[in-house]
Design brief:
Structural class: alpha+beta
Number of strands: 17
Number of helices: 4
Distance between the termini: 82 Å
Amino acid sequence: MDYQLNKIKLNNDSEYSSLYSWSLEEFDSEDNKVKEGFIPMQIGSVYLSVEKLVYHNNFEGSKYGQESSGFIESEHISGELKTQKKDFQLHQPTSNTFSMFGTDRKIKNFSIQIYKTDNGDRGKLSSFHGKKIDSKKENAYFSAHMGWKEDGDLDVAPHAAEDSLYISIFLKEEKFNKIVKHINDGVNAQFFRIGHAEGFYNMWTPSIHLEDIKILSDQKNFGKDEPYVQQVEIPKECDITPPRLGRLYDFSIYFSIESNISVDDNIENIDEDDYKDDFESDNSVEDSWTEVVSHQLNQIENSGLNLSKSSLVALRLPLWIIAITLLLIFFYK
């Protein structure tokens, strides 16, 4: 099989030892370095957009030559992912490119599979690309497919080499069912965030926004004891084993539910008569204060109280001051 790979070498004599102690480098067939070194994934985030998620509920039964014991039911969620463009509103000021070590081919195929933990028909231990995992625990894993150039034969059409990346996630039933409900309600995940994963490498950067990502997969040639497809040349007396694809330690799936009614729509729908009623109500309150003061003064003047003219004038002044003060307080409250 023609995987069309460059050489991959481990460099443990870093020119920038204060930043990183070792890196993986690529060399062409003439032993010329293709790119600067890539180091195991730094602290940072990589984002992928989530295409439509689909819920699958399957019933299977196949026991050749034996009495059938019934059908086996299984369920899982699948979806496609794609790289994101730069988007400062989503705090994504960089765009990411993915490629396998040894190639300059961009990975275009990304997929995600989500399963329930302790899916009884799968058993406690499940085989995951040659590895054993405990399906009773919540876990997440990466795997990859290294493509090869095919000239074609009776069963396979000719095709160029294309690479793929797969994510498998095991969730407890409650979380799994919540995602199924989102799918049923038409709510799709906006994006998938990768925080830290084995087998992911990037060029050193002072930023938390990582750009070019190189993948060192755990794919082997066909056969149990065959070597890895991506062979890494390691210097003598070097005990470093570069991490390959496996566990996904830090990730997030983001769902977002938006309101169908905007604030602007609410403002436009407010009846103008409400403003008119409020204004008229305020004016009526102001009028009532002046009426009360005038009425009290008239009562004093018309009563039989033996008050001098100067006393009445002196009494009018504080009452009007009180009335004006109350009006100002009401107006500016």
